[in-house]
Specification:
The complex is a heterodimer of chains A (201) and B (480).
Chain A: E1 6-14, H1 21-24, H2 44-47, E2 70-73, H3 85-93, E3 97-100, H4 105-112, E4 117-120, H5 123-133, E5 140-144, E6 149-151, E7 157-159, H6 164-172, H7 176-181, H8 184-197
Parallel strand pairs in A: 1-2, 2-3, 3-4
Antiparallel strand pairs in A: 1-5, 5-6, 6-7
Chain B: H1 13-20, E1 22-25, E2 31-34, E3 37-40, H2 46-54, E4 65-67, H3 86-102, E5 105-106, H4 117-123, E6 132-135, E7 149-152, H5 155-164, E8 166-169, E9 173-180, H6 189-200, E10 208-213, H7 215-218, H8 222-230, E11 239-241, H9 246-252, H10 261-271, E12 284-289, E13 296-298, E14 306-308, H11 323-334, E15 349-353, H12 354-357, H13 360-370, E16 380-384, H14 388-396, H15 399-405, E17 408-410, E18 431-434, E19 449-452, H16 455-464
Parallel strand pairs in B: 3-4, 3-6, 4-5, 6-7, 9-10, 9-12, 10-11, 15-16, 15-18, 16-17, 18-19
Antiparallel strand pairs in B: 1-2, 2-8, 13-14
Helix pairs in contact in B: 2-5, 6-8, 13-16
Classes of the chains: A alpha/beta (201), B alpha/beta (480).
Bound molecules: iron/sulfur cluster.
Chain lengths: 201, 480
């Protein structure tokens, strides 16, 4: 997994609330057995017309936002299906950070496994950043995970909260499985205890 | 998302199950939680198995890992000869291979026990009270009906559980949803769960594990309880659960993987301690009177867009904040005008099935409404049993004949139209009364329009050709 330390990039505004994972990556693209290659179908049904041509009204098709690395989104981003294809598609497109007032639980978890930073900010901060983002390519936001701040185009800094364990893993690009494997003795002890007390499990 | 810390005082059911599974606890509250059952399907697992192979890891507990293909298996009888769609075929073949190579429990596509993973788990007795159950699928919450802590995980977490049989978790907060009193005739478990989401919103449960309780929940069958817990995720919760009781034990007893003999007695003794203690702390409480719940349908493209069937389509201005734009977009997508009566909405298709409502009781209830009746002209209908065993049971009871006589297609088990990954899809603009759980844009097929409702309400819409209050068709009260 790639580290996440700081990021300065273009932010695309998506004010819609409840953007679900079916919108982020529709089911017809879930038939892959790989993690990569999903970026071209990110937001597929909003981004393309049924005939496959681009919908120029969709934010990521506008010249100013094609290289966006950040999305500023409405409430409850990533709700719906648990598909990790959603963060895979975002990452493959080049999105490394999503800012919203709230995220759906599983999506939020999935982001950290893929080096994407989901940031929760209060509604007025998201609103201000959304306005910034609507200014197009001028809207370069800076995200600094170490100091836990998002800095808008006008220099206003917004602090955000972050779980220390997740922060540590993101900053260092650490893989959870390796870390857990080091706890094998504790897992074995648990299994031995349950084999005694609850043999039916 | 800090949660209630572990304490020695009165605990909730969720506290008890969580505490019983902690392998390791860090000072910041991050826990390593032991997983008792890991369910696996073909769509969210290939990359996880690939990850294991690449790092030379094994599945730690193949005996506690259960795999079944469901999401993109065709449901037409010709599937015995193979899957036509090449990508779907590859995914199912991958699952075959991974199940074999890693030695996990497996129900292949043409096994009679195959079906939707959340229906197969309980049916085979894998899901037991007090367990932790995970699956790379958000509707894992279904298993909470047994008083198990069950939730969906992403593919990286699937790989983590395969390799270590544990999951890194922080405690969620406790939320109690109480449904008091009795349901009125024609009102079902689906109406309960949709009404709750209509009440709390799709983010209302974010950060919480919900325990459903109250007389109306106690009165539900296990099937009904699974329907309620199934949609905990649509309410934003990590999991939903219901304390086990005699109905739970009765359902579990004798299932292939349920404990037997002395082990059964020992298990039962523990299961009977699985309830929220008097005085346990709740971070949020929602109470709804069972008598106030009506048969409901969704009108928009979010599961929170719920209204009683007697209502009219709302206007975007009825909402606030970002929801105004979302409602405008929904109405446009759904092709609806504010002010129109919900019962004037015509349907083109009816889908009965999914992990929400694909169990035998759902089929019985729908069949009861359809007995001796026929699909309205121009409406197509499809019934997709949740598992091969549900299908067999329904055939033994003659339900298949009621459906086919009514003009429905009678399919093999799978997720089918619920997410339209297999060929079962809506055409653009086609409108469907569905018993599934998501009405998102494009969920059942690009441009397809979904109205969520109970099996009896879907059956009623099938007969009249428009959204209908099932109570108008009921000769005798429908038992649900
Ligand atoms: S029936 Fe639908 S919701 Fe349930 S597991 Fe299958 S696709 Fe998911």
């Amino acid at each position: 997994m790639d580290k996440f330390t700081t990021l300065t990039g273009i932010a695309a505004p998506m004010p819609l609330v409840n953007i679900d994972t079916d919108m982020i990556i529709p089911k017809q693209f879930l038939k892959t057995i790989h993690r990569s290659g999903l970026g071209k179908n990110l937001f597929d049904e909003m981004r393309y017309f049924p005939d496959g041509t681009e919908n120029p009204a969709f934010v990521l098709n506008k010249p100013a936002y094609r290289d966006a690395q950040i999305i500023v989104a409405g409430d409850n981003f990533g709700c719906g299906s648990s598909r990790e294809h959603a963060p895979w598609a975002l990452l493959d497109y080049g999105i490394r950070c999503v800012i919203s007032t709230s995220f759906a639980d599983i999506f939020y978890n999935n982001c950290f496994k893929n080096g994407i930073l989901p940031i929760v900010l209060p509604p007025d901060a998201v609103e201000a950043l959304m306005k910034d983002a609507e200014n197009g390519a001028n809207a370069r936001l800076t995200v600094d995970l170490e100091s836990q701040t998002v800095t808008g185009a006008d220099g206003t800094a917004y602090p955000f909260e972050m779980d220390p364990h997740r922060k540590h893993c993101l900053l260092n690009g650490l893989d959870d499985i390796g870390l857990t494997m080091e706890k094998a003795p504790a897992i074995e002890a648990y299994e031995a205890r349950i084999a005694q007390s609850q043999p039916w499990v | 998302m800090t949660g209630t810390p572990t304490h020695s005082g009165p605990r909730t059911l969720y506290d008890k199950i969580f505490d019983a599974h902690v392998v390791d606890r860090q000072p910041d509250g991050t826990c390593l939680l032991y997983i008792d059952r890991h369910l696996v399907h073909e769509v969210t697992s290939p990359q996880a198995f690939e990850g294991l192979r690449m790092s030379g890891r094994k599945v730690r507990r193949p005996d506690q890992t259960i795999a079944v293909p469901d999401h993109n298996v065709p449901t037409t009888p010709d599937r015995v000869v193979g899957i036509e769609n090449p990508e779907g075929r590859i995914q199912v073949a991958e699952l075959d291979r991974n199940a074999r190579d890693f030695g996990v429990n497996y129900y292949p596509m043409n096994d009679i026990r195959q079906g939707i993973v959340h229906i197969v788990g309980p049916e085979q007795g894998w899901t037991l009270p007090g367990m932790t159950v995970v699956c790379g699928d958000s509707h894992t919450a279904t298993h909470g009906a047994f008083g198990a802590l069950a939730h969906g995980i992403g593919t990286s977490e699937v790989e983590h559980v395969l390799a270590t049989q544990t999951l890194i978790q922080k405690k969620s907060k406790n939320m109690k949803v109480e449904i008091t009193g009795k349901l009125r005739p024609g009102v079902t478990a689906k109406d309960i769960t949709l009404s709750i989401i209509g009440h709390t919103g799709t983010a209302g449960g974010t950060g919480y594990v919900i325990e459903y309780c109250g007389q109306a929940i106690r009165d539900l069958s296990m099937e009904g309880r699974m329907t309620v817990c199934n949609m905990a995720i649509e309410g934003g919760a990590r999991a939903g659960l219901i304390a086990p009781d005699e109905k739970t034990f009765e359902y579990v007893k004798g299932r292939p993987h349920a404990p037997k003999g002395a082990a059964w007695e020992a298990a039962l003794a523990w299961w009977k301690t699985l309830f929220s203690d008097e005085g346990a702390h709740w971070d949020k409480v929602v109470t709804i009177r069972g008598e106030d719940i009506e048969p409901v349908v969704t009108w928009g493209t979010s599961p929170e867009d719920v209204l009683p069937i007697g209502a009219t389509v709302p206007a975007p201005q009825d909402f606030g904040g970002g929801k105004v734009e979302a409602a405008r977009r929904s109405l446009d997508y759904m092709g609806l005008k504010p002010g129109m009566k919900l019962t004037d909405i015509k349907v083109d298709a009816v889908f009965i099935g999914s992990c929400t409502n694909g169990r035998i009781e759902d089929l019985r209830a729908a069949a009861e409404v359809l007995r001796g009746k026929h699909l309205a002209p121009g409406v197509r209908g499809m019934v997709v049993p949740g598992s091969g065993l549900v299908r067999m049971q329904a055939e033994e009871e003659g339900l298949d004949r009621i459906f086919t006589d009514a003009g429905f297609e009678w399919r093999l088990a799978g997720c089918s139209m619920c997410l339209g990954m297999n060929p079962d899809q809506l055409a653009p603009g086609e409108r469907c009364a569905a018993t599934s759980n998501r009405n998102f844009e494009g969920r059942m097929g690009r441009g397809g329009r979904t109205h969520l409702m109970s099996p009896v309400m879907a059956a009623a819409a099938a007969v009249t050709g428009h959204l209908t209050d099932v109570r108008e068709l009921m000769a005798a009260p429908v038992d649900a």
